[in-house]
Amino acid sequence: MKNEMNNLHIPGAAIVITQGDRILFKKGYGFADVEQQIPVDPERTVFRIGSVTKSLTATAAMQLVEKGKLSLHEDLNTVLKDYKITNNRYGPITLHHLLTHTAGIDEKIYKRDNRQSVIPEFSTETVKETLQMQETIFTPGSKFQYSNAGTGLLGSVIEQASSQSLHDYMREYIFRPLGMDSAELYLPQDRSNLAKSYYYDGNGYQTIPYSGIIFPGSGAANMTPVDFAPYMIAHLSDGSYNGTSLLKPETVQLMHAQQFAVHKRMHGIGYGFFKGETKNGIPTLWANGGIDGFISKMVLIPSESIGIFVAVNATHPGLELHSKVVNAFTDKLLTEQVHKPLTPVDGTIDEMKKLEGQYLLTLTPENGWGKGLRLLSSYPYTVKALDGQTISVTGMFQNEGQQSLEKKFVQVDDHFFQEIDGEEQLYFHEEQGNFYMTGPMNFSLPRISFIESPPVLLALYVIPGIVFILLSLVWIARFGLRKWCKQSHAISKIVPIMALLHSMFFIIQFTYANAGLVYGYPAFYQFVVASLPIVSLAAAVYLLFRIGTAKERDRWKVANSAAAVLSILYTSYLFYWNFLSIHYS
Asked: Tens of pLDDT along 129-147?
């Protein structure tokens, strides 16, 4: 642990391992507060567990299913009281869809968090606003799309079915019965035991401030690692802990079973748990979480009644550490090999080459503010055919951290591939004339052309912005030179106006707006700054009109026309990616 934490620049971590009805191992490493040199104590240090909260929210929903207050497969509009889901243009959304991330609700990034560390008591208003602004993007139940907004809706459904806030419901029916005394959805008022989180900038650790999330059920839970142990024990003990029943045994089985998978041989997802296996083939259930730099991972091994929880107070390298901890533990204690030998399906190199290309994983919305993040935060995967049975895939994989790795896969069923000496699975299928690769982090990734690749899209965003900055500087230099030389003939003022408007927008957008997106924009940015390219476009159209109707000869005609056309094209590009005050989608 010490070596890996040093190598990955992780200041603090905690591990808790359970077996049966007891804690087998618990230990803290490093510091919860680097500045004050406060060590991590798994019994006292509170960590934010991020999206592992979703498993707790799923458990709460299934309790209400047991009580008859919710149904897995009925239209949710039958139980929603304060609002209805009206933008579900592809069909009704059910509890099953929310629990499996297959509801088709567009992702929510804009104004998802706040800097005041405020978590709403009830999520009804924020969920209602989200559903009104964003339509569904595919038929519910047809594919997996990880969704904070979907689990946010799930939390609101629980609130309306129980007539309690999600926090109060969890405290009464999950936290208190299991003795999870430190657990809550709100950030504690007394933060003396709350760990700080950090990122490493090359020179040292920098503190990441706490933020609030508008969807409590998606990632707001905080607790000590030891207090998470009873939750794992209950799920590994037919729903009971120390004589207290959390769920019925048949409900636990339902949550742990495969509830959705694109291909029958894929691990898929249950209710509140992803399914997987250890390197030696033992089935697992797992969930990851990340918020404000905190990274957590839960892994359950039902056949051995073992639960593993790892929490760290560092950014992305935390996932890599979690994988190393789980693998180290299972390699030592679970030595039995249960992997069945891979039986390759005969194919041809030509068939494999049909799968080649670049596939793109995006975690950004298709509508509203945030669509443009695809240019900055997409994850490409490159597929290459090695022979008639084997392909290589280079990209980022769920349990390997934020590093790009090359893995080799062999075809064991039609278009279905299993990683050689590993747990990853891939399935290729065609949909509406395009190939999709399902597997990395359970997403279905479309195959993209060169023009759709992130570097090209980013270049089309950055290069014109830089060009307009240079044009502005050139005009300023020309203007200064003319004044110094006391030249009297006029020069066009429209081109520098266009260039200055685009330059101002690009600099503000690139330095402020991308980072501030998750917290929302002030009205001045939305309606003034984000409208600057639109004003530039109007100036460009006026300039082209003047050039087209001018009778006198202008030696700068070609250059001015090119600048105007670039302004029009660039504004159109920004409009398509929803960077402007008016949106394409």
From this structure: 888 777 789 999 999 999 9
